[in-house]
Amino acid sequence: MNPLDKYDRYYFLHPGQLLITKDPVPVVTILGSCIAVTIYSPHTGLSGIFHAMLPEHRIKKNIIAGHPPVSPDPEYVDFAFYYLKHRFGESGISLCNTSMMLFGGSDVLRTVNPSKNGTVGRQNILMARKIIDRELITLACEDTGGNNGRKIVYLPHEGKAYVHYLDNAAGIFE
């Protein structure tokens, strides 16, 4: 079953983008080492998703002293997360009252000299978990790691996501 079959259109979320919506329109994104976090408020119907490529903005300590970043810079896990937290907070929604899911962070990129901190995918997962733990949030679902990319179909109006694993060897998916 293709979850997109019953919809006339969908949004495609590119790397480094985020979306906050109440629209009943699916969101599709493709993840390799990147991660996506979804946030859904069942009480208000507000939903958000981001597609982050890197774990943290390296120079944020020079930009922001002692405060979480709220810049709409969704290339980074930390900036994207705190931006969504800020925007949900502006709508009177505490993230503790939402359903949150985490996807991606695969080791799809072969490295000759892997970092002592692990692959980019692993670092993205660790950053997301670190922030989620710091915020005292329990994930409703997590599907991370491995060697295959993922196609995510997120239904923001229902707070549901479908995952299709990509065949990295062939570079195609069904």
In short:
With about 170 residues, this protein is of the alpha+beta class. It is built from 3 helices and 9 strands, in the order E-E-E-E-E-H-H-E-H-E-E-E. The chain is globular, with a radius of gyration of 16 Å.
Please give a structural write-up:
The protein is of the alpha+beta class and 174 residues long. The protein has one domain: 2-Layer Sandwich (60s Ribosomal Protein L30, Chain: A), CATH 3.30.1330.200. The chain has helices at 60-63, 77-90, 120-134, and strands at residues 11-12, 17-21, 27-31, 35-40, 47-52, 99-104, 141-144, 150-155, 160-165. The strands form 2 sheets. Strands 2-5-4-6-7 form a 5-stranded mixed beta sheet. Strands 1-3-8-9 form a 4-stranded mixed beta sheet, with no helix packed on it. Strand 4 and strand 5 form a beta hairpin. The termini are close together. Mean pLDDT is 87; it is low at 61-65 and 169-174.
